[in-house]
Amino acid sequence: MPLPIPPILSYALRRLIQSIPVVILIMIGTFLLLKLAPGDTVDALVGDMGGADAAFIERLRAEYGLDQPVWVQLWRYMVKLASFDFGWSFVYEQPVATVLLDRLGNTLLLMATSLSLAFTIGVALGAIAARRVYSLTDNVISTLGLIFYATPSFFLSLMMMLVFSVKLGWLPVGGIKTIAGFYTGWDHVLDVARHLVMPTAALSLIYLSFYLRLMRASVLEVADLDYVRTAKAKGAGEARLMFHHIMRNALLPVVTLLGLQFSTVLGGSVVVETIFTLPGLGQLAYQSVVQRDMNTLMGIIFLCAIIVVIVNFVTDLLYARLDSRIELK
Amino acid sequence: MTEAILDIRDLRIALPKGSDRPYALDGLSLSVASGEIVCLVGESGSGKSLTAGAVMRLLPEPSVRVSGGSIQFEGDDLLSFSETAMRDIRGNRISMIFQEPMTALNPQKTVGWQIDEVLRLHMKASRAERRAHALEMLDRVHIPDPPSAYNAYPHQISGGQRQRVMIAMALSLSPRLIIADEPTTALDVTTQLQILKLIRELQREDGAGVLFITHDFGVVAEIADKVVVLRQGEVVEQGPADEVLNNPQHPYTRTLIASVPDLKPPVPKPVSDPPVVLSARGLKKTFGARGGLLSGKRRAVTAVKDLSFKLHRGETLGVVGESGSGKTTVSRIVTRLLDADQGAVELDGKDLLACSPRELRAMRKHIQMVFQDPMASLNPRKRVVDLIAQGPIVHGVPPERAREKARKLLEMVELSPAAADRFPHEFSGGQRQRIGIARALALEPRVIVADEPVSALDVSVQAQVLQLLADLRDRLDLSLLFVTHDLRVAAQLCDRIMVMQKGEVVEAGPTADVFANPQHPYTRNLLSSIPGKDWTPPVRGIDAA
Q1: What are the sequence ranges of the domains in chain A?
Q2: Is there a domain that residue B431 lies in?
Q3: 20 to 30 A Cα–Cα from B87, which one of A38, A59, B186, B542?
Q4: Comparing C-alpha atoms, which of A133, A122, A138 is closest to residue A212?
């Protein structure tokens, strides 16, 4: 029986249609939640100015449409969003889209490096620990995993900063590139990489421990299965068992976790970016909350929702690729 | 006989401290000559699979290890071999066929890849030569259309075909010794017979020796040249198959053989025409037909189509058929664990399928189930007395009285009253099934629906549980709807049987008539596939030993 060609296009289209109501619901929910919080953009602006008279505040509210009922505001926002108009950031005096695009690259870079490092190293260490279960190697790896797991990323960030930047002076304290460095070509890449070392380490270590623990458990489980015994009975050696029979099957739950965690890594980047003053979406989100920059905040959430939807889709595709039993329908 | 290929002497396998016995195997000696099939028979826990593990040197060391004796394979001492040397032997000169064809193949690799792996490991040949050889092997095990099977994943072919692939893999390098560990236990009876024939046919062609591990005397009768009976790690009897099967010497062997259900159905009860307790009319159930707006259509599977039957008081109606015939679906519909698409089920004249949820709860009292897996169907966190009393308490019996009654029921299913305060895991499989029966009886049902209640049990335990069911049925005037794949079991207990194939009843009638004079070709095929049907066990009844 030949494998039918996966009807991937119709699948992708269906997934796209299914994700539209999800995103709309997220946006409505967030909008209403944000409206529940006390204070709005005008309060924050006026606070920055050191106060203003009531008539001015009133006029400002009317100008921004903030005097309308919440439902009207929501309707207007959603209508604009439908044409990908994120509105104007009153804090940055720029269209929200511009502000977001400026920052998106940095966040994606941080997340991609952190997650791929965490995944690769975590999976490798987990597999090694499982194949030498209860040995010294396993104990060391498992204990390290536990320590990473238990250390909050803000604490790790501050300690690394203290050791590597302040005491040893090896790495820059924050930012994404040396200010007034004007590097080009490989020097620029190297400069950015140096700035990313600590944020990446802080963000990836905790996720690394997730993958490590899950992979260890998964390999232990798969290694006991009948088909691994069959492979042994065929005369397969350790390397062959590991790479051809155990790994691919053991990876399946880990890949699920990878997809699920993408959104939490987005959340984790808020802390790490803020500490390392990395100009990314996380830091922007934090500042927007403080300054009640509703439009920017909504824009960030929209972007995150889209990213999570895309990542989940990719995970499902990956899953179907890894597990021959799954057919996309 | 020719020279022995495998010669095991005084083999002893040590178990870790704290096990129920110090040695899994204690002083096992046996030999397998070329062209010979030696059956190693025993119940669960007898150490038969560990014997295979020891020969393959695949025991879960160091917790379970060989602690004495020798294993000679073609004159070499296997126990002295290095791991590398063993790797050369495994799959090449000694190969293995495992029980579960579904789980024994890697789900992520194609059939072809998995056969090719053996060749790659032990043979110097080009890719094209290996492929040709694999295709030839698939053809030898009678798989239709080898090239497409070669490219298929295990989940895309049937259970019987998977087991053929397993055999193709095991035999592809013409091993001197084949170890088959319950290779047909998970298969339907017709497939089982084909696989047994296939193993014998290929083994004759290659002149290999076979060590065949099984718990089923029917299979032994079908295939064995020599039999070794194992109990708790010790050999109690061994000899030519003919002698052991027809003239067993050791009491344990006699008990085992006596427990094999007879193929002779019970004498039909005198016709008294008792009232109908449960009847079904025109039941229909289709799975997977639903298709939402966005979720694409799935192919519908008709599990039951237009099924009707009547169950009289005090009668046992057997529902027999192979996997996928729809027999479990029937049992679930009549207990309303599953809703039928069409049809009616009447219990004492009241339509069960038309009941409101409230009425249904009251009706459930009258129809109870006994499930296949007694371990999985009893809540592990509850004491036995509470498990049994739970039903009556739900139906309004005061807790104290329900518990009191639960203790009496334990006596009825021949368990000691002390069992009441223990947990399910403290019992053996047979005892757990007794608890399951007591639980079903607690509500004083009119009908008991038993879905494969003995298929997870060892043969000697199985005989006892069947006896208990028959006794209770007669004592309490119960009606039994008995679902089974095992025709021997059906023959022993059922007054009438209905044979199902692909959701339809192809034949129904008094068990004795159906067995003696089957009308439908499918029934004939089923009956002629029963392993060891030409062998009549010499000892009968549980107390024969």
Answers
A1: 8-94, 100-322
A2: yes
A3: B186
A4: A122
Q: How far is CA B321 from the centre of its chain?
A: 14
Does residue A5 carry a pLDDT above 60? no
List CB contacts of B344: < 8 A, sequence separation 6 or more.
B280, B281, B282, B351, B353, B354
Amino acid at A233: A
Same domain, B361 and B485: yes
Reading the block at residue A192, the tokens are: 């950015």
Instruction: Give the pLDDT confidence of A62-107 residue by residue, as tens digits.
Output: 887 888 888 888 898 888 888 888 888 878 888 988 989 888 888 9
Do residue B229 and residue B324 come from a single domain?
Answer: no
**What are the C-alpha distances in Å from B485 to residues A78, A290, B325, B452, B499?**
61, 69, 10, 7, 10
B226/B361 same-domain check: no
**Token code pair at residue B260:** 């094999």
Query: For the domain A100-322, what is the CATH code?
Result: 1.10.3720.10
Of the residues B218, B244, B259, the one at which a domain ends? B259
Computed over every residue of chain B, the mean pLDDT equals 87
What confidence score (pLDDT) does residue B542 get? 44
AA identity, residue B188? D
| Residues in chain A within 8 Å Cβ distance of B166 | 230
Predicted pLDDT of residue B543 = 42
B318 and B248 in one domain?
no
Nearest CA in chain B to A225: B103
In terms of domains, do B52 and B124 share one? Answer: no
Tell me whether residues A230 and B90 touch, CB distance under 8 A: no
Within a domain: residue B285?
Answer: no
Q: Does residue B98 belong to the interface with chain A, where contact is any CB pair within 8 Å?
A: yes
Tell me which chain A residue has its CA closest to the CA of residue B170. Answer: A234
Question: A130-154 burial by CB neighbour count: b if 16+ within 10 A, else e?
Answer: bbeeeeeebeebbebbeebeeeebe
Are the C-beta atoms of B211 and B179 separated by less than 8 Å?
A: yes
Distances (CA, A) of B454 to B7, B238, B323, B438, B493: 36, 28, 16, 15, 12
The shortest C-alpha distance from A300 to chain B (Å) reads 29
Q: Above 50 in pLDDT, residue B9?
A: yes
Q: CB of B469 within 8 A of CB of B481?
A: no
Q: In this predicted model, which residue has the larger pLDDT, B158 or B400?
A: B400
Residues B371 and B466 both lie in one domain:
yes
pLDDT tier at B356, thresholds 50, 70, 90: confident
**What is the three-class DSSP state of B391?**
helix
- B279 in a domain, yes or no? no
Residue B217: C-alpha distances to residues B235, B253, B465 (Å): 16, 10, 18
Question: How many other CB atoms sit within 10 Å of the CB of residue A329?
Answer: 13
Banded pLDDT at B175 (limits 50, 70, 90): very high
Q: Which domain holds residue B73?
A: 4-93+173-259
Comparing alpha-carbon positions, the chain A residue that sits nearest to B150 is A1
What ipTM does the predicted assembly reach? Answer: 0.77
Co-location of B255 and B318 in the same domain: no
Residue B172, token pair as written in the block: 């592809």
Q: Using 50, 70 and 90 to split pLDDT, how confident is the model at A182?
A: confident
CATH number at residue B426: 3.40.50.300
Contact between chains at B90 and A18 (C-beta distance less than 8 A): no
Residue B227's φ and ψ, nearest 5 degrees, are -125, 135
What's the total number of domains in chain B?
A: 3
Residue B271 lies in a domain: no
For residues A199 and A276, the answer to whether their CB atoms sit within 8 Å is yes
CA B165 to each of CA B127, B192, B529: distance values in angstroms, whole numbers, following the listed order: 19, 14, 21
Phi, psi of B231 (to 5 degrees): -135, 125
Q: Is residue B413 domain-shared with residue B444, that is, in the same domain?
A: yes
Average pLDDT over residues A288-308: 87
Which pLDDT score is estimated for B178?
93
Pair of tokens at residue A69: 């009922």
